[in-house]
């Protein structure tokens, strides 16, 4: 199908499914166990309804905002997804170029197919990039990576905290991980019998704990954000630990099946933070299942600073390369502008909890 016939982010998924190699599709699309959390991630947004305002002058719409001090044109970022070359021969730099074009941030994964420097080099001018970190059992390696990222101008460190062990993704395991492009630059030796994910992740330290946070704060001046927080108690603990942000996330349903959707955790978290006057102390991000600008708007109404988007850009990249990711972002942009207009908000700072009805959110 033609790119011009992709009218929303789900359309790219359908094309990718039919055109990608089986192993690559298996790695990108799979999630843990019965994939209940994977489905719930997007479905949870379907239980939130708008309370739109009328007769507001909505001629001019401004979708820009700031995340961790960076001005962005639309409140989403390209989240970290490993193994970009499974989907496209050039890998993650395809996403870098699209992020640049739309003035959004890209998070660089530890397990990128391109080297960290290649991805940093692909950025132009003052383009902002963040780093996602899987913490190595050998802390000397981790320290080197973090210091190098900071020296290269990375603007934030996202430490993944939901993956002490990689989840069991059976679709990925069945596909047996035989595609080209599946190597990463970390120099790890790989056992591919358990699928791509497990093959490349054996270095991750399951002993990582709250006690390690001060060490990270001692080795870098980058803001630190915990990626993969799944309950309000841990958000409060993150504030106590003095980190600058959290990503409410279940890793795209790829870790613990029956982990709650980020947006549901968000709806529980923000009132608690507001009551304790902590909502300005950290920036709260969400990811997982964001496929429509209405999803982005709902998350922002509930108090998220921004949302991460993973698979849709991988699918767009795999199916159509640069032009695909560009169009996916353009579609989100257009959806965002239109839907803000239709709920009666002209700028992101006007989005607030009164614009959404979450009475059914908890009712599965
Ligand atoms: C991921 N994700 C991820 N997260 C992370 O911290 N480090 C990583 O290396 C990866 N790798 C990865 C690969 C693939 C193929 C996917 C789909 C996801 C999780 C990712 O950052 C994010 O949490 C989810 O992808 C968000 O969900 P959606 O947007 O894919 O539904």
TrEMBL record:
Alphabetized UniProt keyword annotations: Flavoprotein, FMN, Heme, Iron, Metal-binding, Mitochondrion, Oxidoreductase
GO MF annotation: an example: heme binding
Domain FMN hydroxy acid dehydrogenase: 1-361
Enzyme class (EC, first level): oxidoreductase
Reactions it catalyzes: (S)-lactate + 2 Fe(III)-[cytochrome c] = 2 Fe(II)-[cytochrome c] + pyruvate + 2 H(+)
GO BP annotation list: lactate metabolic process
UniProt keyword Flavoprotein, yes or no: yes
EC number: 1.1.2.3
Any one of the GO CC terms: mitochondrial intermembrane space
Places the protein is found: Mitochondrion intermembrane space
Mitochondrion recorded as keyword: yes
Cofactor(s) the protein needs: FMN; heme b
Highest taxon of source: Eukaryota
Primary localisation category: mitochondrion
Assembly: Homotetramer.
Sequence similarity: In the C-terminal section; belongs to the FMN-dependent alpha-hydroxy acid dehydrogenase family.
Protein name, UniProt field: L-lactate dehydrogenase (cytochrome)
